[in-house]
Predict the 3D structure of the following.
Amino acid sequence: MFRLGAHVSVGGGIHRAVEREEETGGNCGQIFVGSPRGWKVNQPDMEEAKRFRELVEEKDIKPWIVHSTYLINLATPKEELGRKSVETMQAEINVTSKLGIPYYTFHPGAHTSAGVEEGIENIASRLSELDIPDNIRVLLENTSGKGTTLGKTFSELSDMIELSDHGYDKLGVCLDTCHMYSAGYDFSSQAKLDMVLDEIEDTVGNENLRFLHLNDSKYGYASEKDAHEHIGLGKIGDEAFRLFINHGELRKKPMVLETPVDDRGFAWNIRKVKELRS
Ligand SMILES: [Zn+2]
Ligand SMILES: [Zn+2]
């Protein structure tokens, strides 16, 4: 079954996310469990969490993934920011578990002045501090690689995971198409996409790609800029998406859209992706 959804709001209660997903035509989804640009984590009570879990099953809209707040930086050389990042991630992971959501994703962070090696070591050791419940997998999202941001290449992501005490038992990768393209991975032909997947298999391993973010890119190949565009209307274009979403290694994985919300919205993008699906 093709699992395709969008990042939806939890405004009005977390169960409203499931209803919004249904309204856009999605059958899986992504949410924040706090302010995306703040440190506050929502604490749903047992009743609210139960209502969400029941609605997910009743409507068969799953799996879900929680996206962390953008403020988290596990790569930082600043102790205080690192500590706050670990505490906030732990709080978000605990809420994810309470909601019965199997995936949690975050951006690995920027090393600022510390250098790539120390940044990766910081990420791995701070990941090791997390208590990850058995029903959850924590996914590192690949990045565009702007500035000193880490996680631009699959080999960096595999280093972070393999250096952490959790390894692939508790960790994995969430692959974002906009970030991948702007980081310098071209998948505009079958041969090029196969080469990217070979690189993934040789580093993190295809089976450890647990979730996909479908976004076109406003900026060009290898631009290192993270700006999402509607599917097919950006620099990636229809043909690359057709190849990506239908590829044998990817087509069974859950996919969510993080495309802009303007006059088009998620329903338009979901219809578009379904048209490209064969
Ligand atoms: Zn993200
Ligand atoms: Zn993303």
